[in-house]
Write a structure and sequence with these properties.
This protein is an all-alpha fold. It has a domain of 134 residues: Tetracycline Repressor, domain 2. The chain is globular and about 55 Å long. The mean pLDDT is 90.
Length: 200
């Protein structure tokens, strides 16, 4: 599974910061689970154990919350990918990352998984601040993948990383979209065969 690690956070100094962190954490899960359009402020505040009225003490707008949630979700995914790659022997890092990303557990773990696959199709309709932070995290994910490639640092390595990430994300998106479990499995297996040869 694309295990999502807890990102080391700065220690909140006060109650307001603790509450703010809780809201962002809930929102980061909610956007992956329900999409940007399906994530309402009232629902997030309720899930965080707070009243709707307290929202504006923490965020200027719904878009500001969505931007922080997208940033948090993206940071978690990038950290998880980097951790998986670092834990594997260098020659197997890319394969380990691809196998984890295209695992059955990640397929089913939308709420804590990669926000690119969960939210990518909604991104063109989001506010500029949401798109900006998501773009930054996508670039970071591409960089993590690029660093695992045998041709890293050579001409063409960046393009190789772009194709690899696009293929991984597209495969996961399609495998989640279909209502045919056999087709879903076949999509994962076919991509694994091409991106991580020898993967079981």
């Amino acid at each position: 599974m694309m295990t999502v690690m807890q990102i080391p956070k700065r220690t909140p100094r006060g109650r307001k910061e603790v509450t703010h962190e809780r809201i962002v954490e809930v929102a980061a899960r909610a956007i992956r689970r329900s999409g940007y359009g399906g994530t309402g402020v009232a629902d997030i505040m309720k899930e965080a154990g707070l009243t709707h009225g307290g929202f504006y003490a923490h965020f200027a707008s719904r878009e500001a919350l969505l931007a922080e949630a997208a940033d948090r979700a993206g940071a978690e995914a990038v950290a998880a990918a980097a951790h998986i790659a670092a834990a594997a022997p260098p020659a197997q890092a890319l394969s380990a990352l691809v196998r984890s990303y295209l695992s059955k557990a990640h397929l089913e773990g939308v709420e804590m998984g990669c926000p690119i696959a969960a939210l990518g199709s909604e991104m063109p309709r989001q506010a500029p601040e949401v798109r900006r932070v998501a773009t930054c995290r996508i670039k970071e994910m591409i960089d993590v993948v690029a660093r695992q490639l045998p041709d890293w640092g050579q001409p063409g390595a960046h393009e190789h990383a772009l194709v690899t990430v696009a293929t991984m994300v597209g495969t996961l998106l399609l495998a989640r979209a279909v209502d045919d479990p056999k087709l879903s499995d076949a999509l994962l297996e076919a991509t694994l065969k091409h991106l991580a040869p020898g993967a079981d």
